[in-house]
Amino acid sequence: MNGFNAVKKGCCQHKKALKRTLIVLIFCSVLFCALVFAAIHGAARLFNHTMARQTMLRGTVTVETLAPHITGYVQFTNLVWKDPDGHLILYVPDGSLSVRPWDIIARSIKSTTLTNITLNDATIVAYFDEKNHLDILTQDEEKKDGTEKKQPRSFQDRIRNINWNGQKLHASLDLHNCQLESYHMSRHYIMESVNAHIGVYTGKRADIQVSTGRFAGTAVGDGIAIKGKIDLTTKIPTIDLHTDIVNVDPSSLGFGDNIHDQMTLTFHATGPLDQPEARGRLHMERLNLPALRFTDVSGDVYYRDSLLQFTQVKAKVYGGTLDAYGDYNLETRAYNIYGHGEDLNSSTALHDMKFRTLVAMDITMRCDGNPRHLRAYGSFQSGSGYYFPLHFNSISGRFNNRYHELDFYDVVISTAMGDIATDALHIVNGDVQFSPVRIRDAESGETTELHGLDNYKEGKETQAAIGRNIKSLGQSMKSINKTIKDMKNSLDF
């Protein structure tokens, strides 16, 4: 019994000691966390104080928390960088950087001390000046004697000698799910879900791998992917980059007001950084233009000096084919497109089996950069066919389309009994307007002119009216031409 009491007394003493130990450990943990928290915020205050005195970066840089580790890994939160005017350059809710621990221990801080910067969910804003320069670093200061300023470095020299206060960089930048905003004069771009790995090695090379989600602003699309490198060993840095621009909205590039069929461009860009050139391909599953419906559009693309040139462009249209070429100026958004179509099926185009013929067409599209100034014009020539019950040998003419106004000129319908011609047919906001129609007899050469044709609305009413008109023209031709032979050649029975 005495033994049991001794064990019980010992257990109670150990239990109390364990409680006291746990209390001490909890207190120490809380104290440690408090010290760490204070150290983090203290490091942040020290960082903010240092950044307030720095002269390399334009503007101000502040951070909320900064947590260094003995391994050289430093984590930070809520980093904010603003330019002198208060505009946001960088906001990082969560990020980290890696440094060489020995440099920190030896107090030998140099450019190569920094090895990596990682930004998570950051917002990056880039403002470019009129010369397309991004100035986030302070300009070179006057010499100590104040007698002379350093000459501004060229764009090529800036890129080739990317440095930190004159010292070389050997570091990488990783972006995870960031947003990139770019502003240049009247243009702006916003890219979502930006993921990137960029390695910079001054005097050697820069490795680039970037992918984005949707982008909007001056141009709209589903994403951009860039992969390649920049050679920094040459006098003028040279690029070797593969670029994909996925599902661009043509209207956002100025190709018409309401053309939203998606276009994908793939490029391989090479050459000097200040004057690169790129070759690639374009593809569109479909392209819907007024009165024209293209599918399977593809061709070659060449870029140089802000000019995109399209060659060997091929497409399917109304059962036929189109061959085209043209150019597009990225600066002015002006473009020219030239095309030639063959074997376009009229019944497919008009959704009317009563009108059957194959048509060849030449088309030119010009725009000065304003989508409302787009002008499409050209000519067409058909083979033999019929618009039931009228047979014809050919239909030819010219057309001009400009902002809701479609005009046809020199339209001639040639038949065995003679020609039906009109100088102009206009479609303005859906209304069809005819100029006088001339009917020339094939045998006598005499011409009859018809006036006063009413305006017609598009749709079924238009087709019915045109059908009645053609029927009356057929009856007029019957009275002019008395031979049954020509009637058999011109009419179906």
Unreliable runs? 2-43, 140-147, 452-460, 476-493
As a whole number of angstroms, the C-alpha radius of gyration is 37 Å
Distance between the termini: 130 Å
Helix content: 10-25%
Would you tell me the structural class of the helices and strands? alpha+beta
Number of strand segments: 32
Instruction: Choose one word for the global shape.
Output: elongated
**Largest β sheet strand count, sense and barrel closure:** 27 strands, mixed
Could you report the average pLDDT, rounded to the nearest whole number? 75
Strand content: over 45%
If helices are DSSP runs of H or I spanning 4 or more residues, what is the number of helices?
6
Transmembrane segments: 21-44
Keywords: Membrane, Transmembrane, Transmembrane helix
Organism: Megasphaera hexanoica
Protein name: Membrane biogenesis protein AsmA
Please give a handful of descriptors for the protein shown.
single chain; 493 residues; alpha+beta; 27-stranded mixed sheet; 3-stranded antiparallel sheet; 6 helices; 19% helix; elongated; disordered N terminus; disordered C terminus; transmembrane
Account of the 3D structure:
Keywords: Membrane, Transmembrane, Transmembrane helix. This is Membrane biogenesis protein AsmA. The chain crosses the membrane at residues 21-44. It comes from Megasphaera hexanoica. The protein has 493 residues and is of the alpha+beta class. Among the domains are: 14-53; 58-136 and 156-248, no CATH class. 19% of the residues lie in helices and 50% in strands. It has six helices and 32 strands. The chain has a 27-stranded mixed β-sheet that branches. Strands 21-24-25 form a three-stranded antiparallel β-sheet. It has a two-stranded antiparallel ribbon with strand order 7-8. A hairpin with a 4-residue loop joins strand 2 and strand 3 (73-82). The longest helix is centred in the N-terminal third of the chain and has 52 residues, at 2-53. It is elongated. The protein starts with a helix and ends with a helix.
